[in-house]
Amino acid sequence: MASKENALNSEANARPEKKQNIFYNPTFRSVVFQFVAIVALVFFVFTIVDNALTNLDARGIATGFGFLSQEAGFGIGLTLIEYDETYSYGRTFFVGLLNTALVSVLGILLATVLGFLIGIARLSNNWLLSRFAAVYIETFRNIPLLLQIFFWYFAVLQALPSPKESLSIGESLFLNVRGLYFTRPVFEEGSTIIFVALIAALVFSFIFSRWAKRKQETTGAQTPVLSISLAAIVGLPLIAFFVSGMPVSLEYPVLKGFNFRGGFSIIPELAALMLALAIYTASFIAEIVRSGINAVSHGQTEAAMALGLPRNRTLSLVVIPQAMRIIIPPLTSQYLNLTKNSSLAMAIGYPDLVSVFAGTTLNQTGQAIEIIAMTMGVYLTLSLLTSMLMNIYNAKVALVER
Q1: What's the Rg (C-alpha) of the chain?
Q2: Whole-model pTM?
């Protein structure tokens, strides 16, 4: 029996190994399938674009980006750069882009501050404060964003008085149905030193905060970074203002005809959109903050309290830094949602990118493929930029194994 088994083993060893088929290699198959998928996708997109261009040519509609140099011929209510009807469609693109970036940045800042305050209040030992935060969250996150935009624009801001009956504070601030008007500083010759002092104060604050952090890590001693930084940011430009002979004047808003002229103004469309986006997004951020704080071990809080840290210092120095590692990823998603939701501005006439470029410009030129592609590219770029910045911050606060 043993001799028979040895004979079979020797025969198996003598038999040459059969070469493995390359199609059974998982690496080769994955590369082939991905290549086929990419080719199919490219062919699909090419077919759609080719059919669209053929149809446009049949209707006599020109293609290409030459329309960007043509005169626009329409006005825009809010512009952060110089613009009038004689400028080109390319200029309207940048006007809409800047208006979209403006409401997105302001909305993100306001939503972050409000969301963190509501999220912390949700965990407060004060029953009234925590109940208020809970009602806020459950109310605003369950009402569609578009309805909230309509509420702030039609029910609140459109109910304000006319310009002649404006609500005012002295001669420097006026609120009416046309918007909010307030005093604008006018920087005259010699005011450059004020901006230099402000930049120097910001650089000092950054360097000082890094030094204070290293000092705390080494000795445990805390430095009032916020108060000293604020004093530098306010004090240095103020000193430069007086040293340079006060080269700044004020331009007050003045009622001329049916509206105010001069000063700064915030149109009601911007205010309604920013408030709705911030309040709606803050309700989601508050829940993210609450869950992130709850995820931190309660033993960390007890240890900090045992060392004599007050509750506010425990929250800022122990709990929040650890909770941020959990908060940042879903917080990034909320920032992206806010930026994309800003496209709802078209419903109330705020001149964002969708309204002035993908709306008016598209209707006048008919360049659908080019305009929609450019608009999609802008939102994609803004989202990728936001994600990149948040990922950089996330990598800085992440735990690093020794």
Answers
A1: 30
A2: 0.82
The one-letter amino acid at 338: L
Q: Which residue type does 339 have?
A: T
CB 288 within 8 A of CB 327: yes
The answer to whether residues 273 and 390 belong to one domain is yes
Q: Is the pLDDT of residue 269 over 80?
A: yes
Q: Do 292 and 151 reside in the same domain of the chain?
A: yes
8 Å CB contact between 135 and 370: no
Distance CA 345, CA 324 (A): 31
The strand pair at 167-169 and 248-251 is best described as unpaired
Same domain for 154 and 22: no
138/42 same-domain check: no
CB 59 within 8 A of CB 52: no
Over residues 248-269, mean pLDDT: 85
DSSP label at residue 373: H
Q: 168 pairs with which residues across the strands?
A: 174
- Based on the fold, state whether residues 135 and 282 are members of the same structural domain: yes
Q: CB-hemisphere CA count at 13 Å for 332?
A: 18
Burial class (CB in 10 A: 0-12, 13-18, 19+), 377: exposed
The pair of structure tokens assigned to 257 is: 């005809």
In angstroms, rounded to a whole number, what is the distance separating the alpha carbons of residues 290 and 348?
A: 33
Antiparallel, parallel or unpaired: β 179-182 and 264-266: antiparallel
Domain check: are 277 and 393 in the same one?
yes
pLDDT for 315 beyond 60? yes
Write out pLDDT tens, residues 208-250: 998 988 888 788 777 888 889 999 999 999 998 888 888 888 8
Residue 210 lies in a domain: no
| 342 belongs to a structural domain | yes
CB 280 within 8 A of CB 140: yes
Number of domains in the chain: 2
By CB neighbour count within 10 A (0-12 exposed, 13-18 middle, 19+ buried), where does 194 fall?
buried
pLDDT category, 268, cuts 50, 70, 90?
very high
Q: What share of the chain is helix, strand, coil (3-state, %, to 5)?
A: 70, 5, 20
Whether residue 176 lies inside any domain: the answer is no
The whole-number pLDDT of residue 401 equals 54
- Which CATH number characterizes residue 391's domain? 1.10.3720.10
The 10 Å Cβ neighbour count of residue 267 is 17
Q: Are residues 42 and 100 in the same domain?
A: no
Q: Which domain holds residue 24?
A: 2-47
Are residues 151 and 275 located together in one domain of the fold? yes
